[in-house]
TrEMBL record:
<dbReference type="InterPro" id="IPR050583">
    <property type="entry name" value="Mycobacterial_A85_antigen"/>
</dbReference>
<dbReference type="GO" id="GO:0016787">
    <property type="term" value="F:hydrolase activity"/>
</dbReference>
<keyword id="KW-0378">Hydrolase</keyword>
<dbReference type="Pfam" id="PF00756">
    <property type="entry name" value="Esterase"/>
</dbReference>
<protein>
    <submittedName>
        <fullName>Putative tributyrin esterase</fullName>
        <ecNumber>3.1.1.-</ecNumber>
    </submittedName>
</protein>
<dbReference type="InterPro" id="IPR029058">
    <property type="entry name" value="AB_hydrolase_fold"/>
</dbReference>
<dbReference type="GO" id="GO:0016747">
    <property type="term" value="F:acyltransferase activity, transferring groups other than amino-acyl groups"/>
</dbReference>
<dbReference type="InterPro" id="IPR000801">
    <property type="entry name" value="Esterase-like"/>
</dbReference>
Length: 263
């Protein structure tokens, strides 16, 4: 296994970008030159960057016995959307980045069934926004994702300068493709399999619970799990095990003592 730091110029964003890539052990890939290595795009949360999954979760240790590559991009505070202030992060990460990665690593699969995306908090929203807004990914996972702003309107209004730069305003957000439920309603073909977890003491729990119920009514293949837990890396570093176990890859979940049970 190797951890490779890639810097490239994004034509979409007009600036240099950084991404970390975990390359699987050649012994875990039947043929070192195989062109079908599965890929997991792993998205960070607010205040974080391309290094956070490596430094906080031990993802490199967790995947060392698998055949999956992991791509961890930086998205600043963009919420992984084409922002109101003119920066097209959605286009850069959902469309440009996979092409950049394939140019650097031509043996990474471009097949939908071998491409997955997951994230936490802001990145959980980003994973659903990109996974439902494109046809690139067969499996999409969220940990404590900001999947809805219902019940959180006060926080939106208190920081309108930031949120206005991202989504314009709540009125414009509602019914747009940036609203996960609306986007899910509009997607009728190539629906990905979905996974979602949120801690019951997390301030985003009700939002996750409500979105999960709606997605199931819409007929999505969704695995929604809960447990005790807050909005914290202690839980995310454990639950990424569960995401890896859920994905269609060669993965053996580590046996680690935890003080909570999944519901």
């Amino acid at each position: 296994m190797a951890i490779i730091k890639v810097e490239y110029f994004s034509e979409v964003l007009g600036m240099n970008r950084k991404v970390n890539v975990i390359y699987p052990e050649p012994s875990k890939v039947e043929d070192y030159q195989v062109t079908e290595i599965p890929v997991l795009y792993l998205l960070h949360g607010m205040t974080e960057d391309e290094n956070t999954w490596l430094s906080r979760s031990g993802i490199d240790r967790l995947v060392r016995h698998t055949n999956v590559a992991v791509v961890m991009p930086a998205a600043d505070l963009s919420f992984y959307v084409n922002t109101n202030y003119g920066m097209a992060y959605f286009d850069a990460i959902s469309n440009e980045l996979p092409k950049v990665i394939h140019n650097f690593f031509p043996n990474f699969s471009t097949k939908r069934e071998k491409n997955f995306i997951a994230g936490l908090s802001m990145g959980g929203y980003g994973a659903y926004r990109i996974g439902l807004g494109t046809d690139h990914f067969s499996h999409v996972a969220s940990l404590s994702g900001a999947l809805s702003f219902d019940g959180l309107e006060a926080g939106f209004e208190q920081n309108i300068a930031y949120w206005g730069g991202i989504f314009t305003d709540l009125k414009s957000f509602k019914g747009s493709d940036n609203e996960i439920v609306t986007l899910a309603q509009r997607k009728t073909e190539n629906r990905p399999k979905l996974y979602s977890w949120c801690g019951e003491q997390d301030y985003l729990f009700q939002a996750n619970e409500g979105v999960a119920a709606t997605l199931k009514k819409l007929g999505y293949d969704l695995t929604f799990e809960t447990s005790k837990g807050t909005h914290d890396w202690y839980y995310w570093s454990i639950m990424i095990d569960r995401v890896l176990e859920w994905l269609p890859i060669n993965y053996i979940r580590e046996e680690r003592k935890i003080n909570f049970e999944l519901n």
